[in-house]
Write a structure and sequence with these properties.
About 45% of the residues lie in helices and about 20% in strands. The protein has about 400 residues and is an alpha+beta fold. The longest helix has about 50 residues.
Length: about 400
């Protein structure tokens, strides 16, 4: 008799002590049992096929941190057979130990399920995985499902950079205008200074001209520095403490020409204290510029009041920052979608911002939160950023 069938019959108490079929069984009852066995076997084979060809890796692990089994997807990643994993220590094929640490955390946790994103080094290549660990069999075993998100993460980084440069392209015309104006002023000042020297004009007038020149050069430098920070890659930079007011000032400066072109005023009420946030300066600059750009885009020239208000609230351990505008507002039916990736209300127009979804992710990485809140009185849209507060 087939061993699997023998085990199946034994589990149901259908064999006697000698391993033979019990004499009181009828052919009809045996046929029903065999059909049930065949159906169950077929379902198991189907399940195994699904598990082996699913695009995620699956591991069954014992409480002593040994593999009970894996699916073909995981075995193929390291050019092994699934059966070669059985009995081996968890994560033996990785180089940095993050997978093993995650499994241990699942074991030690009081929760039945844990999940996290982790960098796992396999054959010298660092890959990103989303890990989900679940306890089963009365919490004596662990099932770990992991999704390789490396390509998705690379795409996300590409989109982030593309969005940043696309938004920069839209801003360049305005920025060049901002730089061109001071340069024109500089040329005129230079000519004025040249005349002053030739005609021996009073010294105080010459000093005044030089001061104007210094101020104009400083503005050009500020604009250029803002652009450099905006496009600077942050992949290999550590987060540092940066003054929130300074970031806001730079974002308003980068948006200044567009604001003037659309005749939009900015009422920025800065906090009395100098607060800092641990972040990448360029990323926070992108967020503030993007929120300003969204407000600018929503305010039409036909609107009687064209105003953006930025103010702060001290909330104990946190500092709340509000961006409000008198634009067209955000329809209620799309308010729950505005932070979704790739969501836009601008059709084929790319806009000047990096997208609210990316803004939210950037802020999340600095332990800050972006949300759409009830508009303050006299305005149609208000966004709130909540940041951990730290005095400079």
């Amino acid at each position: 008799m087939n061993q699997s069938l023998n085990d199946f019959l034994k589990s149901f108490g259908l064999l006697d002590k000698e391993g033979n079929l019990r004499s009181d069984l009828t052919k009809e009852s045996l046929k029903k049992l065999y059909d049930s066995y065949a159906s169950a076997t077929e379902q198991v084979e189907k399940l195994n096929t699904i598990l082996d060809h699913t695009p995620c890796t699956i591991s069954w692990i014992s409480t002593d941190m040994k593999y009970l089994g894996v699916n073909k997807t995981l075995a193929d990643i390291v050019d092994m057979k699934p059966e070669d994993f059985i009995g081996k220590e968890v994560g033996f094929y990785t180089q940095n130990g993050n997978f093993k640490r995650f499994v241990q955390e699942v074991l030690d946790s009081e929760d039945v399920q844990l999940s996290e994103e982790a960098d796992i080094e396999i054959r010298g290549e660092l890959r990103k995985f989303w890990l989900v660990g679940v306890k089963y069999s009365e919490q004596n075993k662990i099932l770990v499902i992991s999704f390789d998100t490396t390509k998705l993460k690379n795409l996300e980084n590409y989109i982030t950079k593309s969005s940043r440069f696309a938004s920069l392209g839209e801003m360049l015309a305005d920025i060049l205008h901002q730089v061109n104006n001071p340069l024109t002023v500089l040329m005129n000042i230079t000519k004025s200074l040249e005349r002053s020297i030739k005609t021996n004009e009073p010294q105080d007038r010459t000093i005044y001209t030089l001061m104007r020149m210094e101020k104009t050069i400083s503005r050009v430098k500020q604009i250029v520095q803002g652009v450099k920070i905006y496009v600077r890659p942050v992949d290999n930079l550590d987060k540092e403490e940066h003054c929130i007011s300074t970031i806001l000032e730079d974002s308003i400066l980068l948006s200044d020409s567009t604001l003037k072109n659309k005749d939009i005023s900015v009422d920025a009420i800065f906090p009395f204290e100098e607060y800092t946030v641990k972040c990448h300066y360029g990323e926070f600059l992108q967020v503030f510029v993007s929120l300003l750009a969204n407000s600018i885009d929503s305010i039409s020239k036909e609107q009687p009041q064209r105003l953006i208000k930025i103010h702060f609230n001290d909330e104990g351990d946190f500092l709340d920052m509000f961006f409000s505008d008198t634009g067209s507002g955000i329809p209620e039916k799309i308010q729950d979608k505005i932070f979704d990736s790739f969501f836009t209300t601008k059709g084929n127009r790319s806009g000047r911002g990096i997208g609210l979804g990316l803004c939210k992710e950037i802020l999340n990485s600095a332990d800050s939160k972006l949300s759409l809140v009830k508009p303050i009185e006299g305005f149609n849209t208000t966004f709130k950023i909540r940041m951990p507060k730290k005095l400079s």
